[in-house]
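Why does residue order matter? Because the sequence determines the fold. Keep that principle in mind as you read this record.
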Amino acid sequence: MTKEEIKERVRLAMLSQPKTLTKIRSASASVAKWARTGFVPVSQKTYNERVSICDACEFWQASGNLGMGKCLKCGCARGKLKIPHEKCPIGKWNSEPLTPPAPV
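Structure:
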């Protein structure tokens, strides 16, 4: 893929990003689901793998979201990478099974 083709894909992705309200709804539902498991994050190894994949992706904008980074496909920030049930919108990394907290 040429540099111009990549630029065009990124431009089109920016135009098709979810609206703010859609992102808020999605993030709220995801955090609620994550809360039911006790906010257990992915392993550090999985997190690092996800970060490496996103950093190399043509749709990752490192300067987005006030320097926290932003996916131009789904609009997420780096925080999504710590949530086990989340996955890349274009299939570059997958979700993990949710592990409910152990009973006390």
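The mean pLDDT is 85.
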